[in-house]
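2024-03-11 09:14:02 INFO worker-7 job=invfold-0412 stage=load source=structure_tokens
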């Protein structure tokens, strides 16, 4: 018995020794790690703590300066000129033990660890000093790793050793981001409440302190109710911690905070629509606070030569429309003569020019004057795209086996022919005429509405919506009706232009971008564009559609005006005009670039009777294409990567012809991608009797309905 106890005691001692040894090793390891990171933290210049964010310089693809972005306009104020209400609210909200720790709060770390592990709640333990370290050095802002956290911890220790608590607090309140492009407590108080930081009430101070953890989510400009809820949370915390008395709490709780109307302070430096698009992409590429921090060199894809041409093309093209006989809307000149005050309601336009191979935005114009309107119509405005959507409908149908030479009826739609159709919807062609049975390619070249609805029905609604989604066009559920086949959906110009790149790219697509790379103040590249091509659509149907779209920009198509204006290089594209001439579009491509143009009024109204994509948007596109020829993007023959083959097909079924097809005169020669070659003989004419004249008797509409069952 005694021996067993001795053995058990010996095992316990061994376990204790091993545990102690492991603990010592862990402590030594931790000490080594902290020592290494302490040395790494010494490489950071603490003088940056007091520096205010600077403007970032933006360059085009040739290194020419486009302009400057950001720069916060923050006003540095001593901590004694900040309302003590705010200081108390800030400490209670962000770091209640600020004066008790040396940069790291062990209690906070343990509490956060417990809640993260055992209560499944995501909670951080950053002290104000740690936040100051992170906000002062960009490389820490752009990382979310343990490595970053350890450097942040050691930096906080350094800061605490070199500065007093008041200095740390002063740096912090002057650097912190308060949303909507606002930095520093002084500018935040002025922007939100119209008063100096020293004049803030307890209630205002609580609201401002509540913003810090979610500057955009709790911005009182955009989300007042959320900001007000955070204000109440901060006041409750202040009461429970003894920072305020119950009387003060009750008075502040019932007091409604008056927030001023937001002014576009964050866009004062934006002097062009190109800079506006770059600012948007900068905020997407980095965190907003990091982007606003400034001091960067931003190298973009914009070509200033093409940008200036596009801006002039929009202005000159729309100025000519304003001179048309019968034009009744306000002109740009009239708006300027009246002092250019208020919201302009003159004719607007937008243009986007993309590099097909890379997706780089070479030029982007969001309106006729950014001084008159900051609204970027190239990236933000979603308008009905009309017939400009038809190429995707036809692509979906070609992918289902429809051939460009297959016959489609151009006559009025009959009752019950199209499923799920609204009885009141009776689309007609723009010329109110019917051309009878015509080839599918004719329907796209001439933009025939009734033919396009039938082609969409052959493709099937699911295929059309999937095709759109694959090229980056999102369709709202309420728009998924047969009207979709005629472009009854809203889209912004940049997205539509990017979608069209699948045609010159053989089904591939590279998402559009404006920023190539970014350097920090020391010249180190810390961001580089990583846009990559992906196979959005199958090559074969895209090749067929691209060939048809080339015919659109010819003597017979709706884009033929480009030829009459002198542009004779290989190109393809499609016009778009919505009901009552409210929106006009043209999106066209060469082998090098794709360009989209839109024109219309901000408040949708008829521009003027007879305003089509072909005579409003297309001439602007042509001017931009001439500039592309001049500045390094010459158009060459477009060569499809799809293997093409020429063969005989049945015009009715689109299948390989049988004996009766040839006898009836229904065959024709077609050059199509190998992947689309039919595998079966035509079964439409197998059992049909041929008349002496060699003509078959079937109803082609019934034949097509049987051949192409919609999904």
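2024-03-11 09:14:09 INFO worker-7 stage=emit residues=711
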């Amino acid at each position: 018995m005694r021996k067993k106890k001795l053995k058990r005691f010996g095992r316990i001692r061994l376990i204790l020794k091993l545990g102690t040894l492991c603990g010592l090793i862990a402590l030594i390891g931790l000490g080594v790690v902290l020592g290494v990171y302490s040395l790494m933290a010494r490489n950071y210049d603490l003088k940056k703590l007091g520096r205010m964010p600077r403007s970032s310089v933006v360059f085009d693809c040739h290194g020419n300066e486009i302009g400057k972005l950001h720069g916060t306009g923050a006003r540095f104020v001593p901590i004694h000129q900040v309302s003590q209400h705010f200081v108390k609210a800030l400490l209670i909200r962000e770091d209640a033990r600020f004066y008790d720790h040396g940069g790291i709060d062990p209690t906070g770390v343990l509490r956060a660890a417990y809640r993260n592990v055992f209560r499944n709640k995501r909670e951080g333990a950053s002290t104000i000093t740690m936040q100051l370290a992170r906000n002062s050095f960009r490389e820490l802002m752009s990382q979310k790793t343990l490595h970053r956290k350890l450097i942040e911890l050691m930096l906080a220790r350094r800061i605490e050793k070199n500065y007093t608590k008041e200095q740390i607090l002063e740096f912090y309140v002057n650097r912190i981001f308060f949303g909507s492009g606002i930095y520093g407590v002084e500018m935040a108080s002025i922007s939100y409440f119209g008063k100096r930081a020293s004049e803030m009430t307890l209630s205002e101070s609580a609201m401002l302190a509540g913003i810090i953890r979610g500057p955009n989510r709790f911005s009182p400009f955009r989300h007042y109710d959320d900001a007000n809820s955070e204000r109440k949370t901060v006041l409750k915390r202040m009461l429970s911690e003894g920072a305020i008395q119950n009387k003060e709490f009750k008075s502040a709780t019932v007091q409604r905070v008056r927030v001023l109307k937001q002014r576009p302070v964050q866009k004062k430096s934006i002097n062009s629509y190109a800079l506006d698009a770059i600012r948007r992409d900068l905020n997407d590429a980095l965190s907003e606070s990091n982007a606003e921090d400034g001091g960067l060199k931003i190298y973009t894809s914009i070509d200033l030569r093409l940008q200036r041409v596009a801006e002039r093309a929009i202005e000159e093209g729309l100025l000519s429309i304003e001179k048309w006989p019968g034009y009744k809307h306000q002109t740009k000149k009239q708006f300027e003569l009246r002092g250019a005050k208020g919201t302009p309601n003159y004719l607007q336009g937008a243009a986007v020019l993309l590099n097909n191979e890379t997706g780089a935005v070479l030029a982007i114009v969001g309106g006729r004057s950014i001084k008159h309107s900051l609204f970027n119509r190239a990236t933000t405005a979603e308008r009905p795209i009309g017939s400009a959507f038809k190429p995707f409908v036809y692509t979906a149908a070609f992918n289902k086996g429809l051939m460009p030479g297959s016959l489609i009826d151009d006559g009025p739609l009959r009752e019950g022919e199209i499923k799920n159709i609204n009885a009141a919807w009776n689309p007609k062609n723009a010329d109110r005429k019917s051309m009878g049975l015509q080839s599918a390619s004719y329907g796209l070249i001439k933009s025939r509405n009734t033919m396009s609805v039938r082609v969409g029905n052959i493709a099937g609604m699911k295929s059309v919506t999937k095709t759109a989604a694959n090229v980056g066009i999102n369709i709202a559920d309420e728009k998924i009706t047969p009207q979709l086949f005629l472009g009854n959906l809203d889209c912004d110009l940049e997205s539509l232009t990017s979608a069209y790149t699948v045609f010159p790219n053989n089904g591939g697509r590279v998402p559009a971008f404006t920023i190539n790379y970014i350097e920090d103040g020391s010249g180190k590249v810390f961001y580089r564009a990583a846009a990559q091509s992906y196979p959005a659509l199958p090559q074969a149907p895209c090749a067929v559609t691209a060939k048809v779209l080339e015919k659109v920009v010819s003597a017979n198509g709706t884009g033929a005006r480009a030829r009459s204006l002198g542009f004779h290089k290989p190109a393809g594209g499609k016009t778009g005009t919505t009901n009552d001439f409210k929106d006009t579009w043209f999106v066209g491509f060469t082998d090098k670039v794709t360009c989209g143009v839109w024109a219309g009024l901000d408040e949708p109204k008829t521009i003027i009777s007879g305003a089509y994509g072909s005579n409003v948007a297309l001439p602007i596109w042509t001017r931009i294409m001439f500039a592309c020829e001049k500045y390094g993007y010459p158009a060459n023959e477009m060569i499809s990567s799809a293997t093409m083959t020429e063969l005989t097909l049945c015009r009715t079924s689109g299948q390989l012809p049988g004996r009766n097809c040839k006898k009836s005169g229904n065959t024709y020669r077609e050059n199509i991608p190998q992947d689309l070659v039919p595998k079966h003989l035509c079964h439409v004419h197998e059992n049909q009797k041929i008349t002496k004249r060699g003509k078959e008797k079937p109803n082609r509409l019934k034949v097509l309905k049987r051949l192409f069952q919609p999904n």
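2024-03-11 09:14:09 INFO worker-7 stage=report msg="Confidence is low (pLDDT under 50) at residues 689-701."
2024-03-11 09:14:10 INFO worker-7 job finished
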